[in-house]
Each structure stands twice: as C-alpha cells, then as structure tokens.
C-alpha cells in the first residue's frame, strides 16, 4: 500500500537556433544538449526498460525544440558536431600522451618541447573519446537518427507522459491579445500532435508564467490562462511553489540559482514581491482544480484543468546553491574547459575556489557519489510522502520539476543519477511512480484553487521578462500582434499567394514572442544574439505584412524565410483573428 505518488517533471527547452551558426550561441546549443542530455536520457530510459523496471516520468519537449530535434539539417549538423568532439578528444590524447605512447599517428598535434605528457589527462581524453563515440553510435544505430521518434516510442509504451508547451515558449501573460495566447497554445498543441502522434494532456506554461482573468480598462474580459488549455483538452499544468502556497517565493524565484542559471552574470537587483502573497492552507502535495475564468466572477466553478506546484523540498536537493547535489566536490566542474579542446577535465574540488585551483576529475569518484545521492533522494521522497500521509491521512503527490538540460549538460552526472533514482523508486512499495496526467486521472482533485499572477522568475513575477532593459521589446511585439490580428480578420478568405505570405508572417510573430529573447537580454548570457534574433523577426514580419497590405504579397520572400526556419508547417494564420 503506497503512501503517495511521485513524478519527475522535466521541462526541455532551448532557444530557437536552427542555422544560427555554432559556438557560442548557435546550433551548438542544441548539439550540446542532445549529446549530453537527450541521447543519454534515451539510453537510461531504454536501459531501465530492458531491465524490467516499471518507471514513469513526465517529460516536456517544447514545440519549438521538438521542431529542431526533428529537423534533418540540425541532425546532420549534430553528427558533424560529434565528429568534432571525437577528434578533439583524440588530439588531446596525442597532446597528453606519456612519451612511451603514440596514439593516432595521423594526427598532427604540436606538443610542448620536452613534454612528459600527463597520464591522468590522457586517461580523461580517452574517456571523452569513448563517451562521444558511444553517443554517436546510440544516435545513429540504436535510435536510428530519430530523437523525437525514440521519445515517442517510450511514450507509446507508457513510460513517458510527454507534455507540450506554447509554440515558441512565448511569455503568455504579457501578450496583448487573447487571440495571441490562443495561437501560442493551439499551434503548440498541433505541432506536438504532428510529431508525437497524439494530443497532449499535460502542459508546461512557459517560465511557469500564469495570469488569471481580468477586465481591461475598455471593459474587455481577458481570459485566465487555464481557459485556453481547457479549450484544447489539457488536464494538468504546473506552477511555481508560491503560486500554490502563498508567501514569498522560494527556490529559483528567490534567487537560489545553482542549477542551469548558476553562471548568469546578474547585473540587476532581484526584487522581492511588493507585497508577499498571503500564506494559504494549501500544499504542493495536492493537485487542485483551477477555477473557470471565462469571466473573472466565476469563483468556484472548475475549469476542468488541474494544477500542480513544484515541490520545493525535493527541488532544493538539485537547485540549492548551499546543498544541491551538483555542487559536490567530486562532480565535474562545468565552467573550466581545456584551451586545446573545450573538454572539461576538472572537478568542483571545493567551495569558492578560483578555476585555477580546480583539481582533475575522477569519473570513478563521481560514480560513488551518484549512487549515494540517488539513494538519499529516494529516501527523502519516501520520508516526505510518509510524513504527509501520517499528518493528514491524505494520499499525496510530489511533483519534482526541473529543466531537463540541467541533467547531463550542466550537471554531468545528473542523467545516471536520474536512472538510479527511478530504479530505487520503482521498487518502493509505498511510493506510486507515476506521471502527472495519470495522477490527476486516477486521483481527481477535490478542491478548486484561485491562482495568483506569478512566474518562476526573479521575485516570482514578470520582472525577468519586462524590466528596464527589456521593456522596449514589448512595443514591437504588441504592434505586430495588432497588425497580425487585423490581417487575419481582413484575409479570412485569401488567394494562395496571400495565404503563403500571411502564414510566414504568423510564424515570425510567434518567433518574436519567444520568452528566450527577453530572458537572455536580462541575464546577459547572450544579449547581442537575442537582440539580433528578436529584431530580425520583427523586420521580417513587417516586410511580409507590408507586401500583403500593398497588394503585392511577396511569396518569394515568404518561401525563403520558411526555408531558413522550417517550423509550424501546418500553421493557419487565421487563428490570430479569433
């Protein structure tokens, strides 16, 4: 008899980068995540399946990421990337080889005079060579070059609940029109269905950004976000902890940023919420119905869509800057890379050490810590569910939410850690290992909850995406929305040329709405790239819209731009006029 249920909720998303070049911002973003996160995840999932482990997982893949992972050009470039990494490791082997070893005679590598090599670096370079050769074999042979199809197979076998998100990860609460929100949601779901073969029932709100219904100054009712999900048959979505429990934000929203954002050069002050949300008698151990927000006055009528909040106790074990697992001294140091190859040969080593003080990485030491931390996490889950059941008599759910790319890419040992955790939990009789959709179907929520406006961002509000450095981006977004809506209404009936151009114009609107551009500007991670991509989509949209409004739809431009981006092939631009 189980005390409660558990699900990992992994949200996979990257900025749109097809044909955007390589390091530091372009397609290499996708290739790194594929080689260090997505392929290793497929490997461990299939390994668990082969061993008869009955695991379950909620895995999100955003539509814009899924389009890139299914794109032939991106995947061809991924093979080239793997070849480059293998070659880099081989060259390092030549560079670090002891005098009595001469690997790869055909590689011409200039070694320092009188070099005695370095046996441990030589070992690590060989270790990386084998790693990338394994990834290449898994990608091309085991998974037949089909990342999306391989995840889809695990979905069809019942191991994964693959959730979707808004089409381009648009920041939904700040869009001007409900028709834009609906377009982001509906086109995202259409894309998911095309690539994964079924309609999704779970949904990741981009940036966990939620907005309830409200009435604008002109007495126009703006619908709550759950209304758009209900229209599409979505059964469950996710929010940050404070949106459920009230009070001040915790975890990342409060500035605890180890995870994938630990390297952010923050040049702004993280604001607190102007007035902390009142604490409520609610808990992240429950799923709740969201209220029907077709009008702001429907206080207690369920929308039919459930919400789950991130469990902070389990989240801190990975995200916490103070005691998160990724900071263990024996795990691989992400930030220090060899000048010869970009490979990472060092371990965390200690707190607050300069990169120059880092010591060499030992994979066998890290493997011991992986086992220990996986067992610790599994026991923590069991203890939390047992305590909740004992104290309340209720059957609880822990939703442990993370960015997927944290595992493998940022925290190199994270993927095998996940494997060991799933193996442990699948064999615990008192824990139901489940997915979010299965849980709300089998344990329907009993209470209806009014959610506040919120996000996972700094201060728990919209600041990360609308601040002094990004506010200028919202005017062209809103102007494009207004113009696209007018065009969609005017051209409900269109010629083939008009339809072709307006479809591409709609794609450009979706791409400029991506929350990634404002996030990257705010954090300073890839500011110039983000501004370039954003303004590019604004300019493209205006060119296309001008051509239609002038009675000379530029079909050639639309077709050329589609070949550059190749997303949302079945888009219907009329949705923007809804």
Give a structural overview.
The chain is globular. The chain has helices at residues 28-50, 63-69, 72-96, 119-142, 147-156, 178-196, 225-231, 241-245, 312-319, 363-392, 414-426, 436-442, 471-490, 496-512, 515-523, 527-549, 555-565, and strands spanning 4-12, 57-61, 160-165, 202-204, 214-215, 221-222, 236-239, 288-291, 302-309, 396-403, 431-433, 448-449. The chain is an alpha/beta fold. Mean pLDDT is 90; it is low at 258-273. Strands 1, 2, 3, 4, 7, 8, 9, 10, 11 and 12 form a ten-stranded mixed sheet that branches. A two-stranded antiparallel sheet has the order 5-6.
Which key terms come to mind for this protein?
alpha/beta, 10-stranded mixed β-sheet, 12 strands, globular
SSE topology:
Elements: E1 4-12, H1 28-50, E2 57-61, H2 63-69, H3 72-96, H4 119-142, H5 147-156, E3 160-165, H6 178-196, E4 202-204, E5 214-215, E6 221-222, H7 225-231, E7 236-239, H8 241-245, E8 288-291, E9 302-309, H9 312-319, H10 363-392, E10 396-403, H11 414-426, E11 431-433, H12 436-442, E12 448-449, H13 471-490, H14 496-512, H15 515-523, H16 527-549, H17 555-565
Parallel strand pairs: 1-2, 1-10, 1-11, 2-3, 3-4, 4-7, 7-9, 8-12
Antiparallel strand pairs: 5-6, 8-9
Helix pairs in contact: 1-3, 1-4, 1-5, 1-11, 2-6, 3-4, 10-11, 13-14, 13-16, 14-16, 14-17, 15-16
Order of helices and strands: EHEHHHHEHEEEHEHEEHHEHEHEHHHHH
Q: Got a strand count?
A: 12
Classify the beta-strand content into a percent band: 5-15%
Q: Which residues sit in consecutive blocks of at least 5 with pLDDT less than 50? A: 258-273
Chain-averaged pLDDT = 90
- Determine the fraction of residues in helical runs and give it as a percent range: 40-55%
Shape, per Cα inertia axes = globular
Spatial extent as radius of gyration: 24 Å
> Terminal Cα separation, in Å?
49 Å
Structural class: alpha/beta
Number of helices: 17
Characterize the largest beta sheet: strand count, sense, and whether it forms a barrel: 10 strands, mixed
């Amino acid at each position: 008899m189980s005390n409660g249920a558990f699900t990992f909720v992994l949200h996979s998303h990257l900025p749109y980068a097809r044909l955007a070049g390589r390091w530091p911002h372009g397609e290499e973003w996708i290739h790194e995540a594929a080689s260090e996160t997505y392929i290793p995840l497929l490997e461990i999932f299939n390994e668990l399946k082969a061993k008869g482990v009955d695991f379950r997982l909620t895995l999100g893949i955003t539509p814009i990421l899924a389009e890139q992972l299914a794109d032939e050009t991106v995947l061809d470039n991924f093979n080239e990337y793997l070849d480059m990494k293998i070659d880099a490791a081989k060259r390092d082997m030549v560079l670090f080889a002891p005098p009595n070893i001469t690997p790869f005679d055909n590689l011409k590598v200039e070694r320092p005079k009188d070099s005695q090599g370095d046996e441990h670096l030589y070992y690590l370079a060989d270790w990386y060579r084998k790693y990338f050769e394994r990834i290449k074999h898994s990608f091309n042979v085991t998974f037949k070059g089909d990342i999306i199809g391989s995840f889809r197979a695990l979905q069809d076998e019942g191991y994964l609940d693959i959730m979707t998100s808004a089409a381009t990860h648009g920041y939904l609460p700040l869009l001007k029109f409900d028709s834009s929100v609906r377009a982001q949601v509906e086109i995202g779901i259409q894309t998911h269905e095309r690539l994964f073969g079924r309609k999704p029932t779970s949904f990741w709100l981009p940036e966990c950004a939620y907005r309830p219904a409200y009435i604008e100054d002109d007495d126009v009712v703006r619908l709550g976000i759950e209304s758009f999900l209900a229209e599409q048959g979505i059964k469950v979505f996710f929010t940050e902890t404070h949106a459920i429990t009230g009070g001040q934000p915790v975890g990342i929203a409060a500035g605890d940023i180890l995870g994938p954002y630990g390297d952010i050069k923050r040049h702004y002050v993280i604001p607190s919420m102007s007035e902390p949300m009142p604490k409520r008698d609610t808990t992240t151990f429950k799923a709740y119905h969201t209220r029907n927000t077709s009008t702001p006055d429907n206080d207690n009528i369920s929308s039919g869509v459930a919400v789950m909040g991130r469990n902070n106790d389990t989240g801190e074990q990975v995200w916490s800057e103070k005691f998160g697992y990724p900071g263990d001294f024996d795990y691989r140091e992400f930030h220090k890379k060899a000048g010869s190859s970009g490979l990472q040969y060092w371990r965390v080593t200690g707190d607050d050490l300069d990169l120059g003080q880092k010591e060499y990485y030992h994979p066998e030491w890290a493997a011991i810590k992986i086992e220990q931390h996986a067992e610790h996490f599994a026991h923590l889950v069991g203890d939390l569910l047992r305590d909740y059941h004992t104290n309340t008599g209720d059957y609880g759910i822990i939703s442990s939410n993370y960015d997927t790319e944290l595992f493998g890419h940022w925290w190199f040992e994270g993927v095998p850690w996940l494997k060991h955790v799933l193996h442990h939990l699948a064999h615990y009789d008192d824990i139901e290992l489940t997915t979010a959709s299965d849980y709300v179907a089998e344990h329907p929520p009993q209470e209806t909850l009014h959610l506040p406006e919120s996000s996972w961002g700094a201060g728990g509000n919209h600041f990360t995406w609308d601040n002094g450095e990004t506010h200028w981006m919202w005017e062209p977004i809103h102007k494009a929305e207004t113009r696209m809506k007018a065009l969609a209404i005017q051209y409900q009936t269109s010629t083939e040329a008009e339809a072709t151009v307006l479809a591409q114009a709609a794609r450009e609107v979706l791409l400029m709405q991506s929350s990634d551009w404002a996030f990257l500007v705010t954090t300073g991670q890839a500011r110039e790239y983000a501004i370039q991509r954003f303004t590019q989509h604004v300019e493209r949209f205006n060119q296309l819209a001008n051509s239609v409004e002038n009675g000379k739809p530029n079909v050639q431009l639309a077709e050329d731009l589609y070949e550059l981006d190749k997303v949302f092939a079945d888009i219907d631009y009329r949705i923007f006029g809804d």
